[in-house]
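User: quick one, sequence for these tokens?
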């Protein structure tokens, strides 16, 4: 029978959308992932980095993380391998390792780390190890499973970890040499060969994949881009993290896959379906995989209205969305209108005012200010500059006159 693997990444636990907490959505979607792992009878779980959103995540995010991993690991029956991404503190990821191993959880914080050999009786054992590599043997699967691992690191840390002093050597060549040496040494016999990494990897001369808004860009110094053609031919499946849209960039028979994030974390991801990847692998055979859609979490939408009543009607009819709302108007919104909008929906992340421009008019028209005019007109011009050409409403002008007097 084939080995079944669940690949996920970019949980970003503790992340907020502006000031809006996503912790309950994260709790629900991780519960959904656990149920998928059980339903699909998965043998192994790979989590390819950005486990948390910050180096010092809130306590509730840490608690949710460890509880989820313990459930995924099923008391050591199902190994869970989690690596650090660019949002994670590698020291924090490595810290609970001795305790985690007893539960079947293998943490890897630093690149080129060497995992200690150990065994959970009647479940699995780590049979071979080397820097950047280890081999697992499951009680329920005859063939060895070889894991090549490269957590995120900047160029300096990666060169240091791989003991490369020559700064002229391109990062592609460094990684290619390291992975190839390991593959040539440890993949001479039948087994399932997997690579897990948190790198910004593309096809050479292929589509440039956009990093999501708000994501820390992975620009590793002035080094070359990391290309998928440096992956050794022995590797059957590469599990990547970092990009939030599920995407396959490898050859059909040797997929190189970004699983994507389980929730949409910025409005640039609005409308994206989120997935986990279920992989089936056997030695010396092409990999097959499928995307399993995730249903939990509030979807992100961008909406635009030029009428407050229409906006309120739509908001009341769509209570389960998280909304970036653009309102087109000549004048700034009144306090009563803002109150109506916020009372209509609890998921408004931001309201963007946009002025109605007359035919032939551009925003440049609002940048010329006559400093000789009276204070009220000067304030109007200032307000129009600050709020994209919108006029202050009567309430704001009354407040200004009150201050002026």
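Assistant:
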């Amino acid at each position: 029978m084939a080995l079944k693997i669940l690949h996920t990444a970019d949980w970003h636990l503790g992340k907020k959308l502006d000031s809006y907490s996503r912790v309950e959505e994260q709790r629900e979607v991780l519960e959904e992932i656990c149920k998928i792992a059980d339903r699909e009878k998965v043998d192994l779980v790979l989590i390819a980095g950005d486990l948390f959103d910050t180096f010092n995540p809130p306590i509730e995010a840490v608690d949710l993380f460890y509880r989820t991993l313990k459930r995924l690991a099923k008391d050591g029956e199902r190994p869970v391998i989690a690596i650090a991404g660019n949002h994670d503190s590698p020291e924090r990821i490595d810290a609970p390792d001795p305790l985690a191993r007893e539960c079947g959880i293998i943490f890897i914080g630093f690149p080129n780390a060497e995992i200690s050999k150990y065994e959970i009786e009647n479940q699995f054992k780590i049979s071979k190890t080397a820097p950047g590599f280890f081999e697992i043997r499951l009680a329920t699967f005859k063939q060895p499973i070889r894991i090549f691992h490269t957590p995120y690191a900047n160029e300096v840390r990666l060169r240091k970890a791989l003991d490369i002093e020559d700064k002229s050597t391109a990062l592609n060549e460094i990684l290619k040499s390291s992975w190839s040496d390991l593959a040539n040494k440890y993949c001479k016999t039948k087994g399932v060969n997997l690579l897990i990494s948190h790198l910004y990897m593309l096809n050479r001369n292929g589509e440039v994949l956009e990093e999501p808004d708000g994501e820390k860009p992975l620009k590793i110094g002035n080094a070359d881009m990391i290309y998928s053609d440096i992956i050794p031919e022995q590797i059957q499946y590469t599990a990547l993290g970092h990009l939030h849209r599920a995407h396959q960039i490898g050859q059909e028979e040797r997929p190189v896959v970004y699983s994507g994030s389980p929730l949409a974390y910025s409005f640039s991801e609005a409308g994206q379906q989120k997935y986990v990847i279920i992989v089936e692998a056997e030695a010396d055979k092409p990999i097959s995989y499928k995307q399993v859609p995730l249903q939990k979490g509030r979807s992100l939408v961008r909406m635009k209205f030029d009428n407050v009543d229409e906006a309120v009607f739509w908001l009341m009819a769509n209570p389960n969305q998280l909304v970036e709302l653009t309102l087109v108007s000549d004048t700034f919104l009144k306090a009563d209108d803002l109150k109506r909008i916020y009372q209509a929906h609890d998921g408004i992340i931001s309201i963007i005012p946009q002025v109605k421009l007359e035919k032939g008019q551009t925003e440049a028209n609002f940048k010329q200010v006559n400093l000789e005019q009276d204070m009220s007109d000067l304030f109007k011009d200032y307000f129009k500059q600050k709020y994209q050409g919108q006029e202050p409403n009567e309430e704001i002008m009354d407040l200004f006159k009150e201050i002026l007097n």
